[in-house]
């Protein structure tokens, strides 16, 4: 391929990459977007496609404006138009094997509040990507599907990425938005000293005709052989049902079928009419990266710098911010300012600083608790917990609910507390050891 010098090359066209491309196009810098898939907007990787709304996340208070179809990022000062289908979610419910439930959000109560009571909006991620990609194209971004990047090198003021088809693309800057198992991160050697948390696999079926008791909440089922989650799609009656786990030898088809046959959950599936879409993913998961700019020319955005999921909105923001910084460096040759610092400082403030180091993992609770123990613990939480879909708030809610039921557990099943405190006393290295051994870090 003839050598054209771009201001910016973006690798990966997920939410982070397409947003970076649209932004770079709007800012008038010459940009190439490289994606290994042939159909960029086709979603093959498991994703529940739910946006957490009306809650603080990554320094933003994200909300969705239905009237204009705008995803709104007021603190970061931008919107993204989305004209695809959507449906509201009013809470997050955790079920245990016998069908006991811990509810974060009473669906009926939240629904009465209308859009103000929703905690999530489920969308069609493919449509979101298609819309943003179209804008990028209109703004002059050159888009290269079927381009699987397999090498990167910095030479003086240029960065060149090569594809498996033998094409080279050279630019002044690269944004690596190539997802959780970023090849660019690997090629740069950044996984070498990074804490490996295990390999997580997921398979998801979109099933028609599912009838859970609360159709408009996200559901997570704990205590079965695999971790199960269930969430509606924008279309009525269509559900995204996933099986996941840290043991790569897990058979998720078996996991899904077993879940659907469980006496507590089988009634949800009695009118199920078949699988409309299958998606899956296998992710080797590391701790988040602290540095997101390498050699002052390569910026990382989205899942490429995080664990498994920055989330869709959490990937759109760094995509845009990284492209803005590159546009400033390219356009402002006079001030002598290093605009890339805007991106790296923002990342420290909104991502790595508050959430980068994470908490200590408790490992696999199934190894110490029986199905009945899970049911028992859930049955002790009588009250409805605050409505949320935000991962960190869910953990906080569970923690405080657990605090309130400790006296009952101490009286009725003290061995549960003993087992939990044994785990807490263990070094994280030991807790993670089984996952690490089963997984493949692929550094
Ligand atoms: C099971 C599961 C459920 C989830 N549910 C939700 C949810 O409900 N809501 C939510 O907001 N988030 C959810 N997420 C997280 C969400 O999917 C990601 O955080 C988000 O898609 C990250 O966007 P990204 O652009 O950084 O990466 P990705 O979406 O992974 O995009 C990366 C892109 O780079 C491309 N690519 C990779 N390598 C190369 C290469 N070498 N050359 C060229 N292209 C390459 C890939 O094909 C892909 O298109 C979920 C994730 C998982 C695993």
Please characterize this protein's 3D structure.
This protein has eleven helices and 22 strands. The chain has 443 residues and is of the alpha+beta class. The mean pLDDT is 95. α1 packs parallel to α3, α1 runs parallel beside α6 and α9 crosses α10. The chain is globular. Strands 1, 2, 12, 13, 14, 15, 21 and 22 form an eight-stranded mixed β-sheet that branches. The protein has a seven-stranded mixed β-sheet with strand order 10-9-17-18-19-16-20, sandwiched between helices. The longest helix is centred in the last third of the chain and has 22 residues.
Number of strands: 22
Mean pLDDT: 95
Identify the bound ligands: flavin-adenine dinucleotide
Q: Unreliable runs, pLDDT <50, ≥5 residues? A: none
CATH architecture of the domain at 5-49 and 124-194 and 287-356: 3-Layer(bba) Sandwich
Spatial gap, N to C terminus:
30 Å
In terms of topology, how is this protein built?
Elements: E1 5-11, H1 15-26, E2 31-34, E3 50-52, E4 55-57, E5 60-65, E6 70-73, E7 78-81, E8 86-89, E9 92-95, E10 101-104, H2 107-112, E11 120-123, H3 125-138, E12 142-144, E13 149-155, E14 158-163, E15 168-176, H4 183-187, E16 196-208, E17 218-221, E18 227-232, E19 238-245, H5 252-261, E20 274-286, E21 293-294, E22 298-300, H6 312-331, H7 340-356, H8 371-380, H9 391-412, H10 414-425, H11 428-438
Parallel strand pairs: 1-2, 1-15, 2-12, 9-17, 15-22
Antiparallel strand pairs: 3-11, 4-5, 5-6, 6-7, 8-11, 9-10, 13-14, 14-15, 16-19, 16-20, 17-18, 18-19, 21-22
